Amino acid sequence: MAEYHMLRWCASVQLHHLPRLLPAYLVSGFTSTHRNVIHEGYKSVLLADTLTDFQRVQISLPEYEGGLSLVCAHDVLNSAYVGCSAAVARFYRKCRWPEAAPLSEILRSRPSLVRAVEEMNDLFESHQRRVSVGQLDPQVPHAWPAQSKLSKALHRIRADKLENDLARVDVAMASWFASCRLRGSGAWLHALPKIPRFSVSSSLFRVMLCMRSMAKIPGAALVKNCVCGFSGSSLQYGVHWFSQCTHASRKTARHDRVVEVMGEIFSKVRMQVREGESAHWIRGRSDLRPFDLLVKPLGDLSANWHGYDITVADPTRTGLIPSGARYFHSGKAASRLVSRKKARFRSLVQQYGLTRSADFSAIGFEVTGGLGYHASKWFTEVCETAVELGAGVPAGESSWSARNFASYYSQLISFTITKHSALGVLNGIRRSTADFSHGDEP
Q1: Among 186, 201, 203, CA closest to 369
Q2: The model's pTM
Q3: DSSP classification of residue 274
Q4: What's the CA gap between 398 and 409, in Å, rounded?
Q5: Within 10 Å of residue 103's Cβ, how many Cβ atoms?
Q6: Which residues contact 85 (CB under 8 A, 6 or more apart)?
Q7: Staple partner for 191: which of 123, 198, 292, 338, CB 3.0–4.6 Å?
Q8: Chain-centre distance for alpha carbon 74
Q9: Phi, psi of 23 (to 5 degrees)
Q10: 197: buried, middle or exposed (CB in 10 Å: 19+, 13-18, 0-12)?
Q11: Taking a C-beta distance cutoff of 8 angstroms, is the pair 132, 153 a contact?
Q12: What dihedral do alpha carbons 4, 9, 12, 16 form, nearest 10°?
């Protein structure tokens, strides 16, 4: 765990100052070597023999674009150079130095800067439907966007290309990477182990990283057949144990832990919370439980209960991809299950009716830790309420990467889902190898 955080927060940022000061052609050799060293370091963390070209791209993407946030200077050469030049041009424009005007002209006419702007304009023009950055006017550098906006646009283009490339090669990997680009999917990468809730063993954290990268799980090579009888290449990547295995996956435990986190979140924003599993809401059918959680404003006796049915969808279940789609696009696996939950609730109400009035919502997360559309909408609303009420991070659990309600609970949701998915993988490997060893005994 410490090795990844050292790579991310220390090693990968060591040369970030270079492209802000110098054009790409002067520093690309140094930054390329540095990036390769970071990739080798990450390979060592995974205990992997090699990294694929796809994984090397993903590693260098920020977490909000499905990556591992090991973004090196080499990945932002032009955006850093152009963005920094724009900041200098704005400074020249506002300052009162007599030399400001000629210095601004020298800056604008630099061949290296002109070339960098032309390269970015060509790239933005070919991807104008996917990025919000327009063409950069070479004559007005003070109007160019900041480096952060330019870098985000370039990361989006690289991530789109990776997703399209994966879709042509492996449907499951394309679906997984698309899910990794969901809101909050990589929030667990920000979680610091000094907080007990975010502290796990090195072996478990390694599996979490392997899942994120779709790399082979250490020890999975020993598994020839799952304890449930399944065999196939997905065992090497842990995919089978995300939700498909009927013997070893922890999908029920994962679901229950997410429900607990949601209950805690609702309590923080002064909502009365009840477990829906123990309530009898369907008339004449106490065995049917349509809600995981029931909430209503604390102290408001007249308000209806609002029931939530919570699900964690697996984007690697490629047999469930809708007809006409090549793979599960970002959030579509969760949306599919949410639609099914809503249809089931309507059917129950029409057939049996409710014992008392209640509102209903279905919330879908995905195994990557990401929030589907409905979950994202819910989380935005609850965070806005938290700001209004002044709710913050639980006492003693604040860190510089989780200073407010939104960042902390985004990390907690993501970490909880990913942790229990990884525990399912470890459980599957342990049970399958034990079963295999037992079967070899005379």
Answers
A1: 186
A2: 0.94
A3: E
A4: 11
A5: 16
A6: 107, 110, 113, 141, 144
A7: 198
A8: 23
A9: -65, 160
A10: middle
A11: yes
A12: 170
User: How many residues are recorded in the chain?
Assistant: 442
Q: Which two three-digit tokens encode residue 52? A: 């694929």
HSE of 32 in the Cβ direction (CA atoms, 13 Å)?
A: 6
| Gap between the Cα atoms of 353 and 20, Å rounded | 64
- Read off φ and ψ for residue 231, nearest 5 degrees: -135, 150
CA angle 294, 298, 300 (to 5 degrees): 95
Residues sharing a CB contact under 8 Å with residue 202, sequence separation 6 or more, in sequence order = 1
* Residue 422 burial (10 A CB sphere; 0-12, 13-18, 19+): buried
For tokens 């002064």, name the residue: 270
Task: For the chain, 442 residues long, give each residue's pLDDT as a single digit of tens.
Answer: 889 999 999 999 999 999 998 999 999 999 999 999 999 999 999 999 999 999 999 999 999 999 999 999 999 999 999 999 999 999 999 998 899 999 999 999 999 999 999 999 999 999 988 888 989 999 999 999 999 999 999 999 999 999 999 999 999 999 999 999 999 999 999 999 999 999 999 999 999 999 999 999 999 998 999 999 999 888 999 999 999 999 999 999 999 999 999 999 999 999 999 987 666 889 988 888 899 999 999 988 788 999 999 999 999 999 999 888 999 999 999 999 999 999 999 999 999 999 988 999 999 999 999 999 999 999 999 999 999 999 999 988 989 999 999 999 999 999 999 999 999 999 999 999 886 555 444 3
Give 112: exposed, middle or buried? Use CB within 10 Å, 0-12, 13-18, 19+.
middle
3-state secondary structure of 302: coil
Residue 349, Cβ neighbours under 10 Å: how many? 16
Half-sphere exposure of 419 (CA within 13 A, CB side): 21
Residue of 65, 70, 5 lying closest to 40 (CA atoms): 70
- What SS3 state is found at 290? coil
Nearest to 375 by CA among 273, 281, 249, 261: 261
Q: Residue 142: what residue type?
A: H
What residues are paired with 282 via a beta bridge?
354
The single residue listed with the structure tokens 């646009």 is: 153
Can you tell me whether residue 440 is helix, strand or coil? helix
SS percent in the chain: helix, strand, coil, step 5:
55, 10, 35
State the Cα–Cα distance between residues 427 and 152, nearest whole angstrom: 38
| Residue 33, C-beta contacts closer than 8 angstroms, at least 6 positions apart | none
